[in-house]
Fold:
Amino acid sequence: MTLRRSALCISLLLIAFALGAEPMVSTPQIGAIVDSTKTVTLGWTSELNAAKYVIELSESPEFRRLLALKDAEITATQGETGASYDIAFANDDESLKPGQTYFWRASAILQDGTRVAGQVGAFTTARNPFASLAAHGFSLTRAEEGVDKDKPATLSFIRKGADEGEEQYIAEFLLAWQGEDRFFPNPRSPFAWSPAARVAGKLTNDSSEIDTLAKIAAGVVTDWSFRDGRVTLHQNLSAVYEGDQEFDNRNRLVEYLGTISAGSIGTYVPRFGNAIQTRWRPYLGLTYGDKVDVADDATVTEENVFRIVPQLDVTVRLNAIKNLLGITDVLLSANHKIYFQPNEERDRLNYFSAALDFEIGTGFTTGLAFKNGYDAPKFKGVNTLALTFGITFGGGE
Structure:
């Protein structure tokens, strides 16, 4: 009898192996709360014999009405233990609604055409008090040259070390607007552009600081897609005006910022069973224009500025800590820039920043920030670590 049962179990395992085990949800975790203004990545375990996966998304647990997704069939890659899909709607005007529960599954289509339905996942989008502004193209993020699209605009609090005990506040913000995509020369073109404008600022109560007080920019954002959209070049070209807090320095510049999306570049990748998600993205910045400096004796100095700024962003979502604390998100991020600019001291040509942000509710964060290097707040050379409070909405990558 025991032998028969063993043989039956082995037979069932062989049948299951042949037919395929259902793809299991890996991210977001079932019941998770996500931010509808950011890219939501669906992740699942791979099925060994799958030829492709079909992703279904619905507001109904019975999948009565499927939402139309863009490129909802994913070719399976043999040997991979997991697969993922960034939610994108077939209609560009459609998006995830705040405060809505969604149900999804990734069904495997086997080599012989058999369909194996995946495990049903469910997530809820957080209620977003800024949803109306975000829907009209507005975003509020941190003012670091428009790069950090998912980092909060912050008010930083720094207490000076030693015995002096001075306190310093620095507010950094980037309020931006981006219009709808326009395709050239026709709607099926891989070239899209949209108008954009932004106002950035760094405010501090330390009158000795010479950080930028205001930065106003207007320009266009363009995207070039290659190889059926698997590689996309994102570009931002802007005319910029800057003035410092004492209004005796003025910069008139043209800025270019470019980056790409391809494969894992710019996409969150699950690690360690989705305990964390990692994302990296390279950037190339170019700046050209003129700077006007007015000295205390009213001497005016004007010089041309040209600099090349390659940089790298790395972001880690600490999902295990987020789930443990029961909050919206926990982000550990770092950004490193290298400035190539004539007539600058070598020790000022690097800029590094890092931040640990706890998103306690949609759009509201608190955390720690560290900055050091060229164009970073000096905090009188004593402390570069700050407690931060932030608000963010819109944007996203």
About this structure: The chain has a mean pLDDT of 80. The two ends are 60 Å apart (CA to CA). The chain has three helices and 24 strands. The longest strand covers residues 276-294.
